[in-house]
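Dear Dr. H.,

I hope your travels went smoothly. While you were away I took the liberty of generating a structure for the chain from your last submission, since the lab meeting agenda had it listed for discussion. I wanted you to have the full record in hand beforehand rather than looking at slides cold. The sequence, exactly as received, is reproduced here:
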Amino acid sequence: GLNRRTFEDILKKNIRISLKPLGDFKIYIAQSTIYVEPIDWEPDFDEVALRVSKIFGIAAFSRAAVAKKDFDDIVKTTTEYLGKELTAAKTFKVEAKRADKSFPLKSPEICANLGEAMLLQYPNLSVDVHSPDVTVTVEVRDYAAYIRSGATRGAGGVPTGTGGNAAVLISGGIDSPVAAYMMAKRGLRLCAIHFASPPYTSPRAEQKVVKLLQKVSLYCGSINMYTVPFTKIQENIRKFADDDYFTLVMRRAMMRIASIIAQNADSKALITGESLGQVASQTLEAIACTDDASALPVFRPLIGMDKEEIIKISRQIDTFETSIEPYEDCCTVFTPKHPRTKPKLKFVKEEEQKAQIESLIDEAVENTVMRYILPVRG
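The corresponding predicted structure, in token form, is as follows:
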């Protein structure tokens, strides 16, 4: 609609940020197409393509060679740029788009003439308009002609930042990085909140979370990570509250702390990796008790997914192997033997009062540490 320009401007900015470590690029829009061109240098186009493939808001993209708007130069550039592909292929076809109507040849004429030239250059080729080995595409636009051999599927979604800001509660498990990825794909810019409980959790557990966020940030850009000291709160809950209610009171404390940190960071929602019925704290009744403690809306993009579906996405975004590293997070170190699966909010709040965590919540927020996470591959 009328906000298309806003989405395009944010997408251009995200592309520029993603490619900045590789060098200077000219990024502009013409005729509903975004162009990314290196400025006075030859980049590693494989790395450029890899980075572009992970930017939300791009449905498809192409690597293309630039030719003058002259038919002889189009033939020459096609031969130079696609020579290896055409030599190895048996069949091909030509597609043409003439956005610049002043170009003397119409689209069918470009297809016919360029096809004839390729057949003369490459005797190994024959024309197959239905399922060719190589499709040569020529687009004659305002400034030049662009030659390519097909499009690559992009990350899809909408540009990160167009949907506002949200905070993801991230452990070291499989689910929360996937939840972060899925909400970033819907345009949310993320910060992350991690709860650490030393000495019950090790520095390696926190480093594992950093590695996960580095992989997620390849898709959504840099992320501010807030690490919350959670040991005293957990010890108080274990000491004073009924063991059956431990997980529920703990998660309510997390929601209260996360709401404060998120609001201070100008985030309008929380994100969790919960899936309905996956564990005892993720029943309908337990989720309702947890939500009662949040001052912000809570998004659960995995709520209707099973574990295999979640694992499939985690492999796709390269977080699975890191997630299964054997370092415990604070959600697992004090797991009760018989947690409540159908709790009543009234009794949960009574146990929460017994745990005496009000002042500890303020202390945890005050002592939270923020670090800046940049995208890292590998």
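Two observations you may find useful: The mean pLDDT is 92. The longest strand covers residues 188-196.

With kind regards,
E. W.
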